[in-house]
UniProtKB/TrEMBL annotation:
This is DUF3231 family protein. Pfam families: DUF3231 (PF11553). InterPro entries: DUF3231, Ferritin-like.
Length: 167
């Protein structure tokens, strides 16, 4: 897409940060997908990866078209897929849900400091992906939470319910 205006420094900075965050999330998802025991969780995280990967390529094109060098970001050498799993079932979904919470706030902020149509469109698309997957991660998290409540102490259940109600 050709643009009438050059990217502003705030747009470039926000896009740079978004690129790093997205490449980091792809690496985290690759590790979670590799270690997932739950097929539903694995499919959900794979779907998110497939939605985000083209956005990385789109951002790289934006940098190049602007005459800027695309950031290196996080690459496959930054994660060891053979490293042992250090969590119990459900952590991957809970963590992914938290990442979507953070993304929601970041896109709202980045959208308000962007002026070019292509950048605004990118953040709107990322927001849509984020809201969609937040709902999916939230629902699967709640399903697994209520399944495991029977094995938790009263204090653990109260803490989790407090955390859910405060978000």
């Amino acid at each position: 897409m050709s643009n009438k205006y050059k990217m502003s420094s705030t747009e470039l900075g926000a896009l740079w940060m978004t690129y790093h965050k997205k490449t980091m999330i792809l690496r985290i998802l690759e590790y979670f997908i590799e270690k997932a025991d739950d097929e539903e969780a694995k499919n959900l995280m794979s779907g998110l990866w497939e939605q985000l990967h083209p956005k990385i390529i789109e951002m790289e094109s934006m940098f190049i078209n602007e005459g800027a060098v695309p950031p290196k970001g996080f690459t496959k050498v930054d994660v060891n897929l053979e490293a042992p799993k250090l969590w119990e079932n459900g952590f991957d979904i809970m963590f992914s849900r938290i990442l979507k919470e953070i993304s929601t706030g970041m896109y709202a902020l980045h959208l308000t400091i962007s002026y070019r149509e292509d950048i605004i469109k990118l953040y709107k698309q990322l927001t849509e992906i984020t809201e969609n997957y937040y709902d999916k991660f939230h629902n699967i998290f709640l399903e697994s939470l209520f399944f495991h409540v029977q094995t938790m102490s009263i204090c653990q259940v109260q803490l989790i319910l407090y955390m859910i109600n405060s978000t």
